[in-house]
TrEMBL record:
It comes from Acorus calamus. Keywords: DNA-binding, Nucleus, Transcription, Transcription regulation. The keyword Transcription applies. It holds the Pfam family SRF-TF. Gene3D superfamilies: Transcription factor, MADS-box. Residues 4-64 form the MADS-box domain. InterPro entries: TF_MADSbox (IPR002100), TF_MADSbox_sf (IPR036879). SUPFAM superfamilies: SRF-like. Signal peptide: none annotated. One of its GO terms (biological process) is positive regulation of DNA-templated transcription. PANTHER family: MADS BOX PROTEIN (PTHR11945), MYOCYTE-SPECIFIC ENHANCER FACTOR 2 (PTHR11945:SF534). It comes from the Eukaryota. This is Agamous-like MADS-box protein AGL62.
Amino acid sequence: MVGRGRRKLEMKKIEDRYALQVTFSKRKQGIFNKANELATHCGADVAVVLFSPAGNPYVFAQPSLDAVINSCSSSLLHHRPSTTASSVHRKQRVQQLLDERDHLLARIEAERASRGSDGGGALGGSLLYGNLIKNALCPISHNPLQTLVTNHGPPRMG
């Protein structure tokens, strides 16, 4: 059999069962070697769990699997999520939309006041129109069923 040597392989699942087992065995050992180097050179706590194609588990842990799991679980319990760029962007966008809503509501009120003083007009005379816009721009903070009951009364049976 001619060796394949070091070459770039296409990333796809190996279909041949024998080749799959050989590749898994070689790569498993390589991953465990890298994990050992990381633990030795950097003093890192490392745990690697691999499952073979047959479903057998293989574990490498330094100093021990229990120590790494306990360290990980205790740090997760005490970890406070840091402010990420996406959450900052989301907060800025929400604030921008709230500011835009407030600006539009102020314009509606100003238009209503100016039209109300000259006898009505298309926008100022329509209280329903102003309420529709105001409700569309305000965040939903109530139960729609309760609103329906309040506006139209309880449902009639029969």
